[in-house]
C-alpha cells in the first residue's frame, strides 16, 4: 500500500541501496515502546520520530516534512501565509510550523495539536477534504 518496492532482508547492513527512511511497526505502542528503544541508539546521528500510534520513523537528522515544504515554498515562490497543511502526528510538527494555515486533525496526538493554528475533523470524517471545500 505505501511502497512501490518492498523486500525482506536478513540484515540491514547488507542492503546496497540508498535508504531514505526506516519505518518500524510496533503493535504495542510506538511512542511508549519502540521510541524508547530506538531514540537513544539513533538520536544523535539520525532523527527518530513517532509517526503514528504504531509507527516509528528513522530518517536522516535533517529530513522532515518541514524541510520538504520549505523547499516547495522556495522553489515555487509560495509564502508562509499562502501555505496550507494538515497533520496528526509528530512527523507532521515541522510541517505545521512552516505554514500559516496549519490544521491539526481532530484525532491528532494532543501534543501535535499545540503546533497548529486551526483544527479539522478527523481523518475518518474526511476532515482535510471538508476544510479544502470550505476554503475554495
Q: What are the main properties of this structure?
A:
136 residues; alpha/beta; three-stranded antiparallel beta sheet; three-stranded parallel beta sheet; globular
Structure report:
The chain is of the alpha/beta class and 136 residues long. The chain is 28% helix and 22% strand. It is built from 5 helices and 6 strands. The protein has helices at 34-42, 65-75, 93-97, 110-113, 127-135; strands spanning 21-25, 46-52, 55-60, 84-87, 101-105, 118-120. The strands form 2 sheets. The protein has a 3-stranded antiparallel β-sheet, covered by helices on one side. Strands 4-5-6 form a 3-stranded parallel β-sheet. β4, α3 (93-97) and β5 (101-105) form a beta-alpha-beta unit. The longest helix is centred in the middle third of the chain and has 11 residues, at 65-75. The two termini are 30 Å apart.
**H and E order:** EHEEHEHEHEH
Could you give the count of β-strands? 6
Please give the share of residues in helix: 25-40%
Order of strands in the sheet with most strands: 1-3-2
Rounded to an integer in angstroms, the radius of gyration calculated over CA atoms is 16 Å
Main beta sheet strand tally, sense and closure: 3 strands, antiparallel
Number of helical elements: 5
Structural class: alpha/beta
N-end to C-end Cα span: 30 Å
Question: What is the overall shape?
Answer: globular
As residue ranges, the low-confidence spans are: none
Strand proportion, as a percent range, falls in 15-25%
> What's the mean pLDDT score?
92
